[in-house]
Amino acid sequence: MSAPLPTSAAFSALLAQPESLHPALWRASQLAQAGGECVDTGYPALSAQLPGGGWPRGAMVELLPERAGVGEIRLLRPALQQGGSGRIVLLQPPWVPQAAAFDALGLPARRLLWLRSTCRSDTLWAAEQVLASGACSALLLWQSDLRNDALRRLHLASHSSNSLFFLLRPPVVAQDASPAPLRLALKTMAALPRAAADLPLLRIDILKRRGPHLSHPLFVHLQACPGAFYRHVSVDRNTSAATATGSVLPASRHSAATSDGGQRRLAKVAS
Amino acid sequence: MAGSAGLPKSPPELEVPLVVLQKERVLTCSTAAVQAGIEAGMRAGSVRVLAPQARVHVRDSAREQEALQHAAFALLQFTPQVAMTGSASLVLDIGASLRLFGGVLALCRRVRACLRSLGYVAVLSCAPNPWAAEMLARAAGLGRARRYLKLARLHAALDHLPCALLEQSRDMLDWLEGIACYRLGQLRRLPRPGLQRRCGRELLPALDALYKKPDPGLSQAWSWVQTPQEFTAKRELFARIEESAHLLPHLQAMLQEMCGWLQSRHLALQGMALIFTHERGRLAREPTRLDIFLAEPNWQQTHLLHLLREHVGRLQLDAAVIFVQMQALRLQSRQNRSEDLFACSGLHGAPSGGQEAAARLSEAGLLELLSARLGAENVLQAIPRADFRPELANQWQPATYALAGAVRAGAVLSAFAQNFPRPLCLLPQAQALQVRAERPLYGGPLLLVSAAERIEAGWYGGPFVCRDYFVAQSMQGQYYWLYRQRPANRQGDADVQWFVQGLFA
After folding, report:
1. For residues B58 and B20, what is the distance between their CA atoms, to the nearest angstrom?
2. What digits encode the pLDDT tens for the residues B108-133?
3. Rounded CA gap, B486 and B496, in Å?
4. Strands A87-91, A112-115: parallel, antiparallel or unpaired by DSSP?
């Protein structure tokens, strides 16, 4: 018995679309298909550049913020809102989470679980238990010094779950190898004084993804922290200044509208 | 293969001379007592003359047996076959345990450590048959292990031992010395029929047993320790204990016993009860009871000890404890699974639960499991309070005790946070900032980008707070939450100070 050999035309058609052969195949110029389910990032410019069009579930996503407070939580807000109604586990954050602020951002305080630990092995154990239990919708882990074997084990543990898993590490580890299928470096744009007080701009460099290397950075506008406003800035300011750089406003118009409403209300109070 | 451990020996480092008497004569004494001139066989009166400060105990064979029993239970962790012999020694059949524990040396180290945590110093020896192992343990000096795994080397070693060690030859020692027979090797070369005629029937079988080849049938000749259906360890303490931390060594010893018992019955426990009986003072006190429950059945000593340490550390004792009891509760038969990925790293211990078991955990189960290892105070649920002071409004409580009602009260506050800036992250402690050219500095000059929000609260109780809050932007584009501490008296503004309290992540 002999399988019919594909003709050269059929063969080149197959080569043009290797993903039709197997989902794990892709050409170097293409974005890979997502292995599992993905959660929309809420930022179309970012989603378009990620395999599967969003944050993958059951995979380790590494975020390397330049320093604490560049807007990493606000970047994840749409995904955390849509990614299920289970707990959001904050494991070993370097600061004290303020529940009321999470609530105001649309992440109810009752969904938050703050875990602290005294040693690294406990932290890793807790991360694994959270991932393995499947009872939580997202896990955010802050850990600076991780050995390669620990990373690999976390990566394996994330496969067994259906939760979103974000690992936040300092930017210096960008040089080191990591098993995470998706790695992003986050930076704030050096702000012009009094210019970007309402909609902060975040620069995202995709360090690693299943797909071609992205040479240019992405810019996304984060939702302003509710109530963080400058009273002399006009309420209906034109925010299209950054569209030239290829960035897009957050997709959830609803939340933007509420925050605008809040600002308008406060502008009245302030004046 | 059999190991043997001789028990008990007094720890040599004690300062006060210790003397144990049997029938008014010194049976054994500590190093300090030897230095005072006391030696075995002396009369009790001489001890009182030589060392009046010495602590004299009369040998209590019932308590010796009890101690031996405790040790036997603890050693069940290493093999199911532990036997107590008449002469203060234990025999362990370790033939089947060698592979599991990584060889003779590793196993001996663990046995020694286990006995040390019980408070005993043991002499360990190993030999291919139990009789020889016991004989070697009795022959060896304190702390010097003798291990013979090959029969030929064992025989050579046995040949050199003095005849006096063989119990059955005690009555005939003088006669044996008379015919210049001092060692077991010489005894063995004597003509057997004559020896049997002169020394009785017991000597030859006992002598032959020492030189026996290893044989699986040997284990049937011993009466191995049988474990009871239920487990309760009781310990009378040597002193009144007033601090809970001092209870730990005793509890650790009892836990060793319990782990041995769990191991021998192949059980896992989901809870244990500790009952502390107090000294009876003027008023009779109820015993303090401490129940520890586990999210998942467990039997591993390191994990249980970790839990025990956490719980006992938090225990407040009202009165001195003189008696401790430990009970195993909620027993289940053990489910053997592959271990956790991270559990085996380091000495931290291996909590139970594989991937499959954990996957079935509900949220409540997960919280309980996390609280058990991390401590309940590290698994936190937000309980926002309606208070203007941010430090007090942002309350976190152990998730296992968190009340659903308290979360609703926080809803009021979050509506408030919609309208006023509240950062996601608070610094654990507000940091004072330097001011240059009337601008606060935090890794660079900060620019205030919001109107002031004045919080003046706490006059009705708690810390009084009088602050103006601002959102400030750094040159790198981050947002910080600052406040200006307003002076209590309104006269001078020399002591106006800036603090950073949070950041908008």
Report:
1. 6
2. 999 989 998 888 888 888 888 888 88
3. 6
4. parallel
Three-state SS for A73?
Answer: helix
Q: Tell me the three-class secondary structure of B91-147, residue by residue.
A: EEECCCCHHHHCHHHHHHHHHHHHHHHHCCCCEEEEECCHHHHHHHHHHCCCCCCEE
DSSP characters over B69-84: HHHHHHHTTT-S-EEE
Alpha carbons B127 and A195: distance in angstroms, whole number = 84
Q: How many CB pairs under 8 A join A and B?
A: 233
Q: What are phi and psi of B415, to 5 degrees?
A: -60, -35
C-alpha distances (whole Å) from B167 to each of B2, B123, B204, B214, B227 are 20, 19, 12, 22, 29
State in Å, rounded, how far the first CA of chain B is from the last one. 64
CA A55 to chain centre: 6
Both tokens of residue B323? 């008696």
Q: Rounded to whole angstroms, how far apart are CA atoms B64 and B363? A: 49
ipTM: 0.76
Cα–Cα distance, B124 to B133 (Å, whole number)? 9
Cα–Cα distance, A128 to A141 (Å, whole number): 11
Among B95, B68, B70, which Cα is nearest to B81's? B95
Q: How far is CA A98 from CA A63, A260, B164, B425, in A?
A: 21, 22, 78, 6
> Taking the CB of residue B68, how many other CB atoms lie within 10 A of it?
20
CA closest to B422 among chain A residues: A101
Q: Are A138 and A168 in contact (CB under 8 A)?
A: no
Pick from B337, B342, B474 the residue to mutate for testing the A interface (most A CBs within 10 Å).
Answer: B342
Q: Do B424 and A125 touch (CB under 8 A)?
A: no
Contact criterion met (CB below 8 Å) for B255 and B261: no
Spatial separation of the C-alpha atoms in residues B372 and B485, rounded to whole Å: 41
Q: What's the CA gap between A176 and A50, in Å, rounded?
A: 21
Q: Structure pTM?
A: 0.54
Q: Is the CB of A135 less than 8 angstroms away from the CB of B361?
A: yes
Residue B386 in contact with partner chain A when CB distance is under 8 A: no
| Residue B80 near residue B89 (C-beta atoms within 8 A) | no
- A123 → chain B, closest CA residue: B374
Q: Is B473 on the interface with A (CB under 8 A)?
A: yes
The SS3 call for residue B456 is strand
Cross-chain Cβ contact B425/A96 below 8 Å: yes
User: Contact B505/B425 with Cβ under 8 angstroms?
Assistant: yes
Show residues of chain A in contact with B451, CB under 8 Å: 231, 270
Rounded to whole angstroms, the Cα distance separating B409 from B413 reads: 8
Give the C-alpha separation, A108 to B410, whole Å. 10
Buried b (16+ CB within 10 A) or exposed e, B94-109: bbebbeebeebeebbe
Among chain A residues, CA nearest to B478 = A70
Name, in order, each residue with C-beta under 8 angstroms of B471's C-beta and a sequence gap of 6 or more.
Answer: A225, A228, B421, B448, B449, B450, B479, B480, B481, B482, B504
B348: buried, middle or exposed (CB in 10 Å: 19+, 13-18, 0-12)?
Answer: middle
Q: What is the pLDDT along chain A (271 residues), one digit of tens a residue?
A: 455 666 777 778 777 777 777 777 888 777 887 777 899 999 999 999 998 889 999 999 999 998 888 888 989 999 999 988 889 999 999 999 998 888 888 888 888 999 999 888 889 989 998 998 888 999 999 998 888 999 999 999 999 888 999 999 999 999 889 999 999 999 887 555 444 445 668 899 999 998 888 889 998 888 765 555 544 443 444 444 343 344 444 444 444 434 444 444 433 434 3
Query: What is the end-to-end Cα distance of chain A in Å, rounded?
Result: 86
User: Which residue of B348, B384, B428 is in closest CB contact with A100?
Assistant: B384
